[in-house]
Structure formats: C-alpha cells, structure tokens
Amino acid sequence: MKICIILGTRPEIIKMSPIIRECERKGLDYFILHTGQHYSYNMDKVFFEQLELPEAKYNLDVGSGSHGEQTGKILMGIEKVLQKEKPSIVLIEGDTNTVLAGALAATKLHIKVGHVEAGLRSYDRDMPEEINRILADHCSDYLFAPTEKSKEILLHEGVKKEKIFVTGNTVVDAVYQNLKISEEKVNPLNEMGLEKKQYFLTTAHRQENVDDKKRFEGILNGLQLVANEFNMPVIYPIHPRARKMMNKFGLNTNSLQFMEPVDYLSFLQLEANAKLVLTDSGGVQEETCVLKVPCVTLRDNTERPETLEAGSNMLAGTNPDTILNVTKEMIGRNNNWENPFGDGKAGERIVEILNEYFNQR
Ligand code: UD1
Ligand code: UDP
Asked: Taking the model in full, what pTM does it have?
C-alpha cells in the first residue's frame, strides 16, 4: 500500500498530523503532497516545524487566486504527481479547494480516495466549503466520518454503508498529542500580559463573513461590545484574508488586540485559557468543545451541530447585539459537556482501516 497524503492549508496540516505520525510510527510507504494553497510562514511552515512533520515530497506552490483558478491549478498539479507516483490511495481532509481538487484528480485516475472528516453539512450552498465537501464525499471510496451524525447524513445522501467508517475527528488527536507539549514549551499569556480566563479570543476569516463589509463590520462591532461589557481584552490573531479585507473596507476598531496568526502550540494555550472564544472557524468550534471552553460562533449555521447539542457552542451570526447577548448566555453555562468528537485515536483507526483493506488485496 502506498499512501498519498494531500494537504494545502493550515487546518489540513494540523488535522492530518496525527495520520502522518501514525504512518511514520508504522513505517508505511507514504508521501505528502502540499498544494501550496497556504504559503505564508505563519499559515504553513510553522506547523510543519512545531508538529515535527516530514517535509512534503512535492509542493505545487499554487498560492492564492479565484476559486476556479486555484482549484484548476491544483487539479493539474496533483494529476501529474499521481500519474508518476501511482499511489494505492489518496487521503484528503476537510473542505478546502485543495480537497476538492485532490478528490477529483484521484477519482478520475481510478485511484482510491479516502476523505477524512466526511459527512459534514451546513446546508448552505453559498459557502464554497459546502460544495467542496459534498463533491469530495461523493468521489470518495472511504469516508471517515467523525461522528454517528455525519454517518447518518452520508447514508441519507445514498452513500453505501460499507464505505463509511466512524472514526472520531483527528482534531481531538491533535489536541491530546500537543496540549501538554504546548504547556511545557510556550507561554503566550506571559508574553502578551494576559491572565487566565481574563480575556476573550477571536478568529474570523470565512469568505461569507470577511468579504462582506456589513457582516465583517457587524462582527467587529459585536467584539467591541463584548470587550466593553466585560472590560477585558479581545485577542484577534488575524487570518491574512481578514487582514486584507479589513484594509480594503477601511474597517478599524481600537478596542481589539490584533496580531499576526499564531503558531499552533501558542494558539492551543490561548484557547485553553480564554474566558470564551468567538469564531467562525470550523476547527476552533471543535477544539473549544474538546478543551471545555465556551464558544460563540459568528455564523448563521454550522456543519458542527454536535457542538450545539453538547452545549459548548451557540450560533450568534454577525449582529452586534446578538453577539453580546449570546456571549453572556454562554458565559453563564456550565462547561460539563461531553466531547462528541472521539477519544483521540481517529488517526490510528484510519490507518488501521486502510492497512486491513489493502493487505487483503
Ligand atoms: C481557505 C479555505 C477555508 C479554510 C481556510 C483555513 C477554501 C475555499 N477555503 O480559506 O475553507 O477555512 O483556508 O484557513 O479552500 N493568504 C495569504 N497567505 C497564505 C494564504 C492566504 O496571505 O498563506 C491570503 C491571500 O490574500 C489570499 C487569501 O488569504 O487571497 C485567501 O486565501 P485562500 O487560500 O483563497 O482561502 P482562505 O480564506 O485561506
Ligand atoms: N490556529 C492556529 N493559529 C491561529 C488560528 C488558528 O494555529 O492563529 C489553528 C487552530 O488551532 C485550528 C486551526 O488553526 O486547529 C483552524 O484553522 P482555520 O480556522 O484557519 O480553518 P477552519 O478550521 O475554519 O477550516
């Protein structure tokens, strides 16, 4: 069995890391194909360094562009590598343009596709991620669903049950593998002069939020209301897309503490010790649930409804008053919820399933 692990963005590097480690541990024949969708040091290399991941064998260096341009370039680049390497299976993770192109390139060459984090749905087809995840799921031969709920979604869409494996989400593996290391290695609270549970943490980068002036402005005003109401700093490591759009729209607010995106170990510490996290990130909704930190999601829907049911997360959209009110409500909640995303062994399970299947042939 030869595995090709495709990744291209920050969350894919983090969520593939447990699978890469497992391949290393088992001495499997695998290689990493990086599309270069993310390329800034603090969106890419820093995670390879910190998570001690081997360098990618290939980097397509596609960079940024419109959806069609970026997806097309990735598709062309991946096809060439797959034709040369002829892997038995391609693994993709999540819902980015890298994932869609990876799934299409492999399936058209009749190479098996394994989709990690399959079966998530926001039911909002205006989101580029929703289209990517639906298409990737329906190209895949192995669908690694994080929860029973995601399995049910796939079954309802007609995916054969033999193809679906409930494994948990590798985000839990990554948190469990790195939280202690982060406590030992980094101390962002000290560096930033923050006290435990005396600050809010925020991230927002989604196209439907930051590319829309009214929605982005609503989020920034809502965060300002939260900072004023609780008289606590709001820390915002700002994604390059959000930074670019903030400048373009001429938005500004002086009560938030903006900074460059931070490394994973520091971000874990910032999350674990925050009073509450406000975000539109998928991974951050999951991590806060695992870390038992309340979360307010700055979106109208989520493809992670397990967090709403567990009680770790509430949707607030982008209206400033709603953001403040939902924040107050979440702060009043007990954080004794159960993590629905698994036991931190998703990576092991996924590799084991592949091993079993391919060793039978
Ligand atoms: C992508 C994913 C999104 C995911 C996010 C994770 C798609 C359609 N979207 O969004 O689902 O949540 O990654 O962070 O695949 N930029 C840099 N440096 C980088 C990368 C991007 O400066 O390393 C800037 C560029 O101005 C670029 C913009 O960010 O135009 C957007 O990058 P892009 O990869 O198109 O999408 P993301 O918003 O990062
Ligand atoms: N993250 C990070 N530094 C930051 C912000 C986020 O390391 O400054 C990590 C976070 O811990 C999570 C992942 O990036 O694992 C989430 O990525 P992102 O929000 O970019 O994408 P999404 O999950 O929304 O697709």
From this structure: 0.98
